[in-house]
Design brief:
Structural class: alpha/beta
Distance between the termini: 19 Å
Largest sheet: 4 strands, mixed
Strand content: 5-15%
Shape: elongated
Number of domains: 2
Strand order of the largest sheet: 2-1-3-4
Radius of gyration: 31 Å
């Protein structure tokens, strides 16, 4: 047991105190704080005068009574400044816009039964046209209600919102609102991306750690005093702890950056985005997923003799992780599809897809327990097999081969008994 904790401490400690680990953590933390405050940073370099200037839209009103131009230009609180164009026709207005005398051109034609609005603009911000569309629609409603001579009470009846509630069909059932959907969406998306990074980064780290010790012949000294199985599990936990230590300052940087960006975003983060129940599922699935992928990574790392061969050895593992990643992205919009439900039982896909189903849909509690049990048993079995291959693989040197490598590793492991 002492050897186990020595291996854990040595593996984790060596990485935590390394300059690369410290500097990468500091740099990424600074980037996270900067990204969460990007709007404030941009605001520092934007003068107040520029922020106060509203974009100008000239209006050519060709309706029968010309009421649209007068209504739009009278709105002084909108995000645009509408100006009735009286200096010429449409071609002249477009030419003036190209010469930057104003920003956009709006042409309104027809009558109240068939209003046609043409908006001439440039750029890639589609929300500008949506806002202008909303302003024209609101102007039409105002003109129509005035012509109908509706009083204030009648207008209130027309515009008063309805009360709409969504209720579960079955007793004790659940329904997903737009707020809970978006909350789950971003959490699921974040976890899917996190698991993918964990598999790629931590898997490569584990395999490289083993291969480097083999290539430097340090492994021969280690296995003489530490059981290979104890060594493998110790490395898995040690690198996992190093990753956790790396994650803590990044999370603190994210929360600190969110707090700096403003109380509104900070409150939104904890009330509309983060769900403690989903976080608990995320923690369980990340831990189990780490041991599934980490055990295989350690096994593959033990089969290679040079650190240069690690990338080739773990390619199958990376491909599986990529498939799981893209399946999860596909499942964000179709969490109840049969393919997602079936593949969520496959241990390599369970961490992403089960969390996806829990967050974006409704999964019976019994099914969650069954799938997590399958994942737990799979993690144990994978690490038992990986330990046997690791035990023989650390004694192997030569050209890497999947088929011959596994066969030879099992044979050497039997001899070591």
């Amino acid at each position: 047991m002492n050897n186990f904790w020595t291996t854990v401490g040595h593996t984790a400690g060596r990485r935590i105190v390394s300059k690369a680990f410290i500097w990468s953590t500091v740099i990424v933390s600074i980037l996270i704080i900067a990204l969460t405050n990007i709007s404030n940073i941009i605001g520092v370099f934007t003068s107040d005068e520029e922020g106060d200037i509203r974009q100008q839209i000239v209006v050519i009103d060709e309706t029968h009574d010309g009421m649209f131009a007068s209504l739009l230009t009278s709105n002084e609180e909108g995000i645009f400044q509408y100006i009735e164009y009286t200096n010429g026709d449409l071609e002249k207005a477009l030419e003036d816009a190209r010469n930057e005398e104003h920003d956009y051109v709006l042409v309104v034609t027809g009558d109240l039964l068939d209003i046609n609005a043409e908006f001439f603009g440039s750029g890639t911000d589609y929300t500008i046209a949506l806002d202008v569309h909303h302003d024209v629609q609101r102007a039409k409603e105002t003109i129509a209600t005035n012509e109908l001579n509706l009083n204030a009470e009648e207008l209130a009846i027309i515009y008063s919102p309805i009360t709409f509630h969504e209720l579960p069909l079955y007793e004790n059932g659940e329904v997903q609102t737009q707020e809970t959907h978006m909350q789950a969406y971003w959490m699921v998306y974040g976890l899917v991306f996190a698991i993918y990074l964990i598999v790629i980064v931590m898997g490569t780290m584990i395999a490289t750690e083993v291969a480097t010790e083999k290539s430097s012949r340090v492994m021969e000294l280690i296995i003489s005093s530490v059981n290979p199985v104890t060594q493998m599990i110790g490395k898995l936990i040690g690198i996992g702890l190093a990753g956790l230590v790396n994650l803590i300052p990044l999370l603190l940087a994210f929360f600190f950056g969110s707090w700096l960006s403003g109380n509104e975003f900070y409150e939104t983060l904890f009330t509309e985005i983060i769900d403690p129940t989903l976080l608990s599922y995320a923690f369980i699935l990340i831990i189990l997923g780490y041991f599934v992928y980490g055990g295989i990574a350690a096994m593959l790392g033990a089969l290679v003799s040079r650190a240069e061969d690690v990338n080739y050895a773990i390619q199958p593992l990376i491909f599986i992780a990529m498939i799981a990643f893209f399946l999860a992205l596909f499942g964000l919009n179709t969490p109840e599809s049969s393919i997602i439900q079936i593949l969520s039982y496959v241990p390599f896909f369970t961490p992403q897809l089960l969390f996806l189903r829990i967050g974006m849909g409704t999964v019976p509690v019994w099914e969650v327990y069954v799938i997590i049990t399958i994942l737990t048993i799979s993690a144990i079995l994978i690490n038992i097999i990986a330990a046997k291959v690791y035990k023989g693989g650390v004694l192997m040197y030569g050209k890497f081969s999947f088929k011959e490598g596994f066969k030879q590793a099992f044979q050497l492991a039997k001899k070591e008994k």
